[in-house]
């Protein structure tokens, strides 16, 4: 006769659930890695192009430190401002779900960190994987305050391509020889003309072989024949799209903006400011030395730009770097000419998402934003060094964005009135032949936003204009990635163009180059509550007002609401 122990059925049934919950928690604890970093903003002297000057840096490094993490990790970056300028940092390509407090753009999601102050940013990574980057989001500080941000696949999973033997971040930058970069936007505003044009582009901080004084310091990659290298290329340049190539080497494009693409081979890239492109380099050429090179793709005809070429050296192991380099320099790659819009288009139209089937098919909200250059009249206190004796300006739907004196996010969260208006136009206020011959016209100034319902499905058509000059505008979204479902030249046609959309495997991106004199249609689900900036990533256009802001309302659950502001949030 045995003793019968009665365990209620309900407990028996829930035991496996409790057990698996327990295992799940253990795994979560084991996997939820938190990385802590300290970024100290300080001035440091650097010598480039035979001239020494002070620049703003993080921890004295230029380019700044590379952040490394795994998919889904959390980073806490404590930023200590030991410089004489206000600063904020932006984690470019990180979605910051529900947490715009750590997104960075000054006066949009936070007040600046003033000299002597500090602020800890929290970055909860979610779907990002690949190369993203970080940069300052105050005035022009990002010219030197920037760095790579690498997100590896989760421990236990792998790249959707053969594991490369080595990886090398390639940060493309821009250098002004004699100018204090922090004075450039202020000076341009004073004159109404163009901001000072740079003297060099850089690869990982070095202008390279073709500029005076930089031969010995040219950035060099040494490769072993037969191996594969993952180049994580970031365009951190302020004002120009770039063509990039490596002599005699075909590159395999595998990802863009921290999102995987279907692989394709190419002899050159066109990369806009704000974009990051991951490519595989196959060291499969004759042993020797080859140049990596980049120069401008400048689509705005007539606009002044830096016409120089930056280079780095790719050399096969065993080839020694000696004086011979001077007599027998490596060959330059064939780069498309500065104004080769067709080459730019041929490259970008090859982007396709690695995976299909995630594109929103129905659209709740249609938006059409005309992005434009403009000219303003001068007044006594505002001289006019722009074209036609006027001042440069730029706009989205004829509004030149003006920074408020406290950030929009705080005003929204604390319901402070009078900081922004919710009547940003959802279509251009005046219809015209956007890409036709237009006389330049003025704009209105404003701090206006579009409010979107949580989880609504949005299609935004970005329409370039030919007002004053048409240009390729790299439009970057904060808080979101989007599917680039269509793109073309001329004016967007609401009847015909959607018939040619790619709704199967369009690329998912966070910065898209809207073609010169053309349009781009993007779709996304407004599932990230908060205040989010979208803007051109050409800095002079930002300075003139080419910004817009979305507010996405809170969703119905705790996880779809804005998190609380952190206690150390800077005040204005
Ligand atoms: C980041 O994620 C962790 C774990 O899910 C969560 O506890 C925390 O609130 C998140 N922080 C922010 C700022 O979103
Ligand atoms: C990945 O996981 C394995 C086994 O759990 C562990 O030994 C290893 O240290 C982890 N690697 C990293 C980089 O976290
Ligand atoms: C590299 O390509 C150029 C033509 O673009 C060719 O003249 C040269 O011989 C090639 N060099 C090597 C080492 O293959
Ligand atoms: C790209 O080139 C590499 C090396 O030359 C080759 O192995 C690969 O198959 C090519 N990939 C595509 C998608 O054409
Ligand atoms: C590019 O510039 C060259 C030289 O200025 C000019 O001859 C050519 O027509 C231009 N190409 C395009 C596509 O505008
Ligand atoms: C700008 O100046 C032009 C003449 O140069 C004048 O016709 C126009 O009314 C002015 N616009 C404004 C808004 O003052
Ligand atoms: C717009 O202007 C362009 C260039 O002048 C012209 O080719 C086109 O036909 C115009 N489109 C319309 C709809 O008027
Ligand atoms: C833009 O706004 C300015 C100032 O109100 C106005 O003069 C101009 O006609 C507007 N242009 C368009 C295309 O809406
Ligand atoms: C948002 O929409 C998706 C797809 O319709 C749905 O699965 C999800 O539950 C919604 N999120 C919330 C928080 O309502
Ligand atoms: C949501 O958050 C509130 C306040 O933090 C809490 O009282 C409530 O229980 C939460 N609701 C759920 C469903 O977790
Ligand atoms: C720095 O930020 C503070 C707070 O918003 C502001 O009052 C001050 O004008 C800013 N300084 C500069 C030089 O922009
Ligand atoms: Cu632009």
TrEMBL record:
It catalyses: 4 hydroquinone + O2 = 4 benzosemiquinone + 2 H2O. Its cofactor is Cu cation. It is found in: Secreted, Extracellular space, Apoplast. Binds 4 Cu cations per monomer. The keyword Repeat applies. Keywords: Apoplast, Copper, Glycoprotein, Lignin degradation, Membrane, Metal-binding, Oxidoreductase, Repeat, Secreted, Transmembrane, Transmembrane helix. Its EC number is 1.10.3.2. The chain crosses the membrane at residues 12-30. One of its GO terms (cellular component) is apoplast. Its main location: secreted. Residues 41-155, 167-318, 424-554 form the Plastocyanin-like domain. The keyword Secreted applies. Pfam families: Cu-oxidase, Cu-oxidase_2, Cu-oxidase_3. GO terms for molecular function: copper ion binding; hydroquinone:oxygen oxidoreductase activity. One of its GO terms (biological process) is lignin catabolic process. Lignin degradation and detoxification of lignin-derived products. Belongs to the multicopper oxidase family. NCBIfam families: laccase. This is Laccase. It comes from Eutrema salsugineum.
């Amino acid at each position: 006769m045995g003793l019968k122990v009665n365990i209620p059925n309900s407990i028996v049934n829930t035991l496996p659930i409790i057990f698996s919950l327990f295992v799940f928690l253990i795994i979560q604890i084991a996997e939820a890695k938190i990385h802590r970093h300290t970024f100290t903003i300080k001035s440091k002297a650097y010598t480039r192009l035979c001239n020494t000057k002070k620049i703003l840096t993080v921890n004295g490094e230029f380019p700044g430190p590379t952040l490394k993490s795994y998919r889904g990790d959390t980073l806490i970056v404590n930023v200590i401002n030991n410089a004489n300028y206000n600063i904020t940092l932006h984690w470019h390509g990180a979605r910051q779900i529900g947490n715009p407090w750590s997104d960075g753009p000054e006066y949009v999601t936070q007040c600046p960190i003033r000299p002597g102050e500090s602020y800890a940013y929290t970055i909860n990574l979610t779907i990002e994987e690949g190369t993203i980057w970080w940069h300052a989001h105050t005035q022009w500080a990002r010219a030197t305050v920037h760095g790579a941000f690498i997100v590896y696949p989760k421990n236990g999973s792998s790249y959707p391509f053969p594991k490369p033997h080595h990886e090398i971040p390639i940060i493309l930058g821009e250098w002004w020889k004699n100018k204090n970069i922090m004075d450039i936007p202020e000076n341009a505003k004073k004159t109404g003309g163009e901001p000072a044009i740079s003297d060099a582009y850089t690869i990982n901080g070095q202008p390279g072989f073709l500029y005076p004084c930089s031969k010995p310091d040219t950035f060099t990659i040494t490769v072993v024949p037969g191996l594969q290298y993952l180049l994580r290329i970031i365009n951190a340049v302020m004002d120009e799209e770039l063509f990039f190539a490596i002599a005699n080497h075909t590159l395999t494009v595998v990802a863009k903006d921290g999102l995987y693409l279907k692989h394709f081979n190419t002899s050159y890239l066109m990369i806009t400011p704000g974009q990051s492109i991951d490519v595989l380099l196959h060291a499969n050429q004759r042993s020797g030395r080859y140049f990596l090179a980049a120069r401008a793709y400048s689509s705005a005809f007539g606009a002044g730009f830096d016409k120089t070429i930056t280079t780095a050296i790719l050399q096969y192991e065993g080839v020694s770097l000696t004086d011979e380099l001077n007599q027998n320099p490596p060959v330059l790659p064939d780069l498309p000419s500065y104004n080769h819009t067709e080459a730019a288009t041929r490259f970008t139209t090859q982007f396709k998402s690695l995976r299909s089937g995630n594109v929103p098919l129905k659209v709740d909200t249609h938006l059409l934003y005309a992005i434009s250059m403009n000219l303003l009249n001068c007044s006594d206190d505002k001289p006019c060094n722009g074209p036609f004796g006027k001042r440069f300006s730029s706009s989205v739907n004829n509004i030149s964005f003006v920074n408020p004196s406290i950030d929009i996010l705080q005003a929204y969260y604390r319901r402070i009135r009078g900081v922004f208006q919710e009547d940003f136009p959802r279509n251009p206020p005046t219809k015209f032949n956007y890409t036709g011959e237009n006389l330049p016209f003025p704009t209105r100034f404003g701090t206006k936003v579009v409010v979107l319902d949580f989880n609504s499905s949005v299609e935004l058509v970005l329409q370039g204009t030919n007002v004053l000059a048409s240009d390729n505008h790299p439009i970057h979204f904060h808080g979101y990635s989007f599917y680039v479902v269509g793109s073309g030249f001329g004016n967007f046609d609401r009847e015909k163009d959607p018939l040619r959309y790619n709704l199967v495997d369009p690329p998912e991106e966070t910065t898209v180059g809207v073609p010169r004199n053309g349009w781009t249609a993007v779709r996304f689900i407004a599932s990230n509550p908060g205040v989010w900036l979208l803007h051109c990533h050409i800095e002079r256009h930002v300075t003139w007002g080419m910004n817009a802001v979305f507010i996405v309302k809170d969703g119905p659950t705790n996880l779809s609401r804005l998190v609380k502001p952190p206690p150390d949030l800077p005040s204005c």
